[in-house]
Amino acid sequence: MADQKPGLFKRLFGAETPASPPETPGPPETLPPHAGQPKQSWLQRLAGGLKRSSDQLTGGIAAVFTKKKLDQAMLDELEDVLIQADFGIDMASTVAEALRRDRFDRDIAPDEVRAVLAAEIEKALGPVAQPLDVAAGPKPFVILMVGVNGSGKTTTIGKLASLYGAQGKSVMLAAGDTFRAAAIEQLQVWGQRTGAPVVARPPGSDASGLAFDAMTAAAADGKDILIIDTAGRLQNRDELMGELEKIIRVIKKVDPSAPHATLLTLDATTGQNALNQVDIFGKRAGVTGLVMTKLDGTARGGILVAIAKTYGLPVHFIGVGEGVDNLEPFAAADFARALVGEV
């Protein structure tokens, strides 16, 4: 497909991979709002969170399929719609081929296209929709959170602490983002709210030393889970990635099998740059799974599909809001339906 349309990728995304944003401290991540809002099911929250993406997709599909019979021009336009929604060229080609194979030169309606798209999304995401099995490793099960500034690491840690605490597991948190006083304070607030003790040091402390202390404390206290925050770092800064590698080496001095999960939080609003983050963090930090955040802040939710088809890493959780209950295990079928507006 890329060979047939050499100018399409350049027209949509530019000649090169989108550059990383300038390295500036990310804004403090929002703490969960207080209770009092009407309770919605997860599927309702997911559909609401993906509304911008589903509205763009359904609008684009409706604009393309204005004629009755499916022809090549309509398939080409559909591919453009999907690529603009960050599904990637491979996925756009897959969907177009499925329609060409089964519907070409036959009457077709936008709803039928959406159904085919949902089926292909579920097919692509099914293999990566894997729960994080914290019972699989020794105690404490060590989760290392990595990602760029503003991706939602600290907020996600708080949500995970709440989730696992509700399951009766004992959790300890480590404020390893020692570069930002706000991140340390935020994690301490999450610890208070979830009842999880927090290992913290003054801003500017050595992060690897803090990780060592947290590993030792969690083992001594018999905690089920230790979640270690890390400083947000751009994936193209070699020296910062080197510091992350040092943290991992120190963790392994305490437990050679740790970290038992290295989760990369990805901000869905970064679009194609998220692919680059998965590549670099995967190579330097040994990422084992993904958490996709801020899907409610973008109309390009298809990026998760592109990441799944490119890297095949497990997607453990997705977030569609700031509330403590707006993080859920990833379910391919629910996501596919919500993304195409079928919920």
Q: Cα distance, first to last residue?
A: 31 Å
- How many β-strand runs? 8
Structural class per helix/strand content?
A: alpha/beta
Uncertain regions: pLDDT < 50 for 5+ in a row?
Answer: 1-36
Write the layout of secondary structure elements.
Blueprint: H1 6-13, H2 42-49, H3 51-64, H4 72-84, H5 89-103, H6 110-125, E1 141-146, H7 153-166, E2 171-174, H8 181-194, E3 198-199, H9 207-221, E4 225-228, H10 238-254, E5 261-267, H11 273-285, E6 289-293, H12 303-311, E7 315-319, E8 327-329, H13 332-339
List keywords for this structure.
alpha/beta; eight-stranded mixed sheet; cell membrane; GTP-binding
Q: What would you say this structure looks like, in words?
A:
The chain is an alpha/beta fold. The chain has helices spanning 6-13, 42-49, 51-64, 72-84, 89-103, 110-125, 153-166, 181-194, 207-221, 238-254, 273-285, 303-311, 332-339, and strands spanning 141-146, 171-174, 198-199, 225-228, 261-267, 289-293, 315-319, 327-329. Strand 2, helix 8 and strand 3 form a beta-alpha-beta unit. It starts with 5 loop residues before the first helix and ends with a helix. 46% of the residues are buried. Mean pLDDT is 86; it is low at 1-36. Keywords: Cell membrane, Cytoplasm, GTP-binding, Hydrolase, Membrane, Nucleotide-binding, Receptor. One of its GO terms (biological process) is SRP-dependent cotranslational protein targeting to membrane. It is found in: Cell inner membrane; Cell membrane; Cytoplasm. Belongs to the GTP-binding SRP family. FtsY subfamily.
